[in-house]
Design a protein that fits this description.
Two copies of one chain form a homodimer. Chain A has 339 residues and is α/β, with parallel strands linked by helices. Chain A has three domains: 8-60, 434 Repressor (Amino-terminal Domain) (Orthogonal Bundle), CATH 1.10.260.40; 65-163 and 298-326, Response regulator (Rossmann fold, 3-Layer(aba) Sandwich); 166-296, Response regulator (Rossmann fold), CATH 3.40.50.2300. The first copy, chain A, contains twelve helices and twelve strands. Chain A has helices spanning 8-15, 19-27, 34-46, 53-60, 77-90, 105-117, 135-143, 166-179, 195-210, 227-238, 252-264, 298-314; strands at residues 65-70, 95-100, 122-125, 147-150, 161-164, 185-189, 220-222, 246-249, 274-276, 293-295, 324-327, 330-332. In chain A, the strands form three sheets. Chain A has a six-stranded parallel β-sheet, with helices on both faces. In chain A, strands 7-6-8-9 form a four-stranded parallel β-sheet, with helices on both faces. In chain A, strand 8, helix 11 and strand 9 (274-276) form a beta-alpha-beta unit. The longest helix of chain A is centred in the C-terminal third of the chain and has 17 residues, at 298-314. Chain A is elongated and about 90 Å long. The termini of chain A are far apart. The interface between A and B is large, with 49 and 49 residues. The structure holds a DNA duplex (30 and 30 nucleotides).
Chain lengths: 339, 339
DNA sequence: CCATTTTATGGGAATGTTCCCATTTTAATA
DNA sequence: TATTAAAATGGGAACATTCCCATAAAATGG
């Protein structure tokens, strides 16, 4: 179906050289006469020679491909991580293959297989909210293919991780709510198999403790991050005999969805109930009122994860160290807490 | 660095078979005794055999990889297209590699090279807003690698394309504005190297013509889709002696940005100026007031493009037909036009 | 029970590179 | 000028698979 591609052998024949020499010229090996190199390079250019990566991969046992597993695509979060990672990676001559699992564990497993089959040289992973079993990822480590987790990590695996300081971010979010005079602060938390949920919840507890505000478990709801549920839980909270006067949501989409419900009930934000999110999605400054949130250095996370991975790729497996990089967060105050 | 992978040869030796037979058993060739097949499959499973795609690719001259070039990642549009394409493609055993160019022509060219180097079996393309030269894409066609354009297409290339009915969508958008009583309808248009800009502009003209509204060229501004410019142009429009009473924006981000400016000037939407966008981004129903817009079947676009591409891959090059699929749009009426 | 067909297996070329180990050419040194 | 070192090139194995052709084994038919 495809037309014949010109090969190193063809060039060699034409120029009366051996394929070894041509290969050397093409790959920039020092042991080639300048004259010969020029000849080969010119001919390659002229004849539109394209290296056959299949053959190169086969002999070098490398794909120059790095895989990235993302749980979803529709918030701006993961695309930004990808851009960050891509920048780092491409500057080192690697390419990125992206697979998104749409928050489905099964799809994630299948995507991991695809990455394995394509023999990626390394893998960046953020798991789905459903993922509780990590066998499909351990397989990579066993095979000597390095993995780096970012954002949603598996704490039990001994591999490098890039996370933000969720605990601290949550702490400062809640502290901010307390400082503006709120007393009954609800928390719409994430599923507790995700470590970010747990860390953010702990930050919430810590802030309450520091300011001597009693914890009311009634105000803490863990949910599975599906938007349909938010409405139910927020209504539940607002229907309590003593409803909350503030809400700290696990992430921005949750906060935004919550705000829709709150507004529909005719409550004022932030006077009746202040709202704070997490991540600083693009949306958060466009909605009305704009959303106070905890910003993360999202591009930087992608870059850092990629950097760690590239290091592993270059390092012998016996020297791999499971470093965890924790990135700082920033409180971005907007109208949803300060009217 | 990596531990030794078990190969077909290893299996053959262990089971006292030839590699031909093992290969046949593994690939499901009919000419293998059931007993032998079972033996091989079991052994492969047990020994955690992984096929070496490099070798397979080399001999079959196929990568099973499909590339997709996207100009950006941060609106929900392209991620949705990708999801649509991925669904179609993976169901046929292909994998997707994604490259985003951040609206940079140079990056697009470089990404195209990467795709070529990775020997994708086909390419889905939506060009950047800067792209005027298509040489980097023609190269694929010359090599016999099929291309399908989606959304932002090159009209001069004889390859299949998937577009939406921009003309019709724009027509209905403007018609809607006219029907709610607007007379001075501005159009913030896209750069005229993009055919979607031209088609949408033509739809705008046609609607005005149909309802006998004189065209005022002062109200039509083409711009390069960088958000910083929107502010300038909207302010310019609003400062006109006879300012517009409605705005049809080339896309939702533009419309949303425009609305920020309009609101800041204390004008009411839609009473003083109605606004309509294009694409039905997720944002458009979350902002205040919610944005009337033209919805596109985005997932479907990705699916359709992928389907066309898969067909080309299976078809001899001599039979390739440059079909253009035009998808319908839908007017979604929200608060920014009907208060 | 032998000839013939069908079914199952083996051998080996081919895919396009890289890279090691010769070998040849050129340059440097005595 | 002969000797040695350095630089440049060539030959061929190796990478893991597929697939064609040949051969062997089993089944079928008269």
């Amino acid at each position: 179906m495809k037309s014949h591609q010109i090969t190193i052998k063809d060039i060699a024949k034409q120029l009366n050289l051996s394929k070894s020499t041509v290969s050397r010229a093409l790959t920039g090996h020092p042991m080639v006469k300048e004259e010969t190199r020029k000849l080969v390079l010119e001919f390659a250019e002229k004849s539109d020679y394209q290296k056959n990566s299949f053959a190169i991969n086969l002999v070098t046992q490398k794909s120059n491909l790095i895989g990235i597993l993302v749980p979803e695509f529709l918030s701006t979060y993961f695309p930004k991580v990808i851009i960050g990672a891509q920048n780092k990676i491409s500057s080192e001559g690697y390419n990125l293959i992206i697979a998104q699992s749409n928050e489905s564990y099964e799809t994630e497993v299948s995507n991991a297989r695809v990455m394995m089959a394509n023999q990626v040289d390394g893998l960046l992973v953020s798991v789905t909210k459903e993922t509780r079993n990590f066998e499909h990822l351990m397989a990579f480590k066993r095979k000597g293919i390095p993995i780096v987790f970012y954002n949603r990590v598996c704490e039990d695996m001994d591999v490098p991780k890039v996370v933000v300081d969720d605990y601290d971010g949550a702490f400062r979010a809640v502290e901010h709510l307390i400082k503006i005079g709120k007393k009954r602060i609800a928390h719409l938390a994430g599923p507790d198999n995700l470590s970010i949920s747990r860390r953010r919840l702990n930050g919430y507890y810590a802030a309450l403790r520091k300011y001597n505000i009693p914890v009311d478990e009634e105000l803490i709801i863990s949910y599975d991050l599906t938007m349909e549920k938010v409405k139910i839980y927020i209504n539940h909270l607002l229907n309590l005999p003593k409803p909350p006067d503030a809400l700290f949501a696990i992430n921005d989409p949750t906060a935004i969805e919550a705000m829709q419900v709150i507004k529909k009930r005719g409550l004022r934000i932030p006077e009746d109930i202040a709202v704070i999110g997490f991540s600083n999605d693009q949306l958060s400054e466009l909605i009305e009122p704009s959303l106070t949130t905890i910003a993360q250095p999202v591009y930087k996370i992608g870059e850092t994860a990629a950097e760690l991975l590239l290091n592993l790729i270059k390092t012998d497996i016996s020297l791999w160290k499971p470093i965890t990089k924790t990135m700082p967060t920033e409180l971005v105050i907007r109208k949803s807490t300060i009217g």
